[in-house]
Design a protein that fits this description.
The protein is an alpha+beta fold. The protein has one domain: Peptide Deformylase (Alpha-Beta Complex). 22% of the residues lie in helices and 29% in strands. The chain is built from four helices and seven strands. Strands 2-3-4-5-6 form a five-stranded antiparallel sheet. A hairpin with a 5-residue loop joins strand 5 and strand 6. It is globular. It binds nickel (II) ion.
């Protein structure tokens, strides 16, 4: 089954996601489908709210950006109920995009060092210190579980400058070359 990516303006992207309980039906199939949707849209991460499910589940495959960011080499994982602890409050700004906000790229400040705790798809607990761009991807995806998107971190001036682009997404005027679900307010669905 091909999962569409829900676009900015859809209310599910603004909900706080629920913890994922053991015994969630067909979890591994869902994770496989999320990886497939992520690869189809050439993303390096996808959070469950982006496919319309308000649960604390994220998939990441950062390997495609390993040439620029070596810490991403071979890093493919599914995160269930992830928790981030900030290890160093210094932030670095880099451009980010999001499959739910096609055509938008903005500099976002993020901390560079985190400790990440999560469950894998067998509900086994893991803990790891993560740095650099991989830490950025994790923070971006975990934001989705709190109902946040990356443009929430940019200045009011920057947001004003991309207002028209945002409006085009919300109203369904943007064309996207991967399967998407437009916001209920969009003229097309
Ligand atoms: Ni995103």
């Amino acid at each position: 089954m091909k999962l569409p990516v829900y676009l900015y303006g859809h209310p599910v992207l603004r909900k706080t996601a629920e913890p994922l309980e053991a015994g969630y039906p067909d979890l591994k199939q869902l994770v496989d489908d999320m990886f497939a949707a992520m690869y189809e849209s050439e993303g390096v991460g996808l959070a469950a709210p982006q496919i319309g499910k308000s649960i604390r589940l994220v998939v990441i495959d950062a390997d495609p950006v390993a040439e620029s960011f070596p810490e991403c080499a071979g890093r493919k994982f599914a995160l269930i109920n992830p928790e981030i602890e900030i290890l160093d409050g210094d932030t670095v700004s880099r451009p980010e995009g999001c499959l739910s906000l096609p055509g938008i790229s903005e500099n976002v400040p993020r901390v560079e060092h985190i400790r990440l705790r999560w469950l894998d798809t067998d509900m086994q607990a893991h803990e790891e210190e993560i740095s650099g761009y991989l830490a950025r991807i994790v923070q971006h995806e975990c934001d989705h579980l709190e109902g946040k998107v990356f443009i929430d971190h940019i200045s009011a001036i920057r947001r004003q400058l991309i207002r028209r682009k945002l409006n085009d997404i919300v109203t369904g005027k943007v064309a996207v070359d991967y399967p998407v679900r437009y916001a209920p307010t969009a003229r097309r669905r």
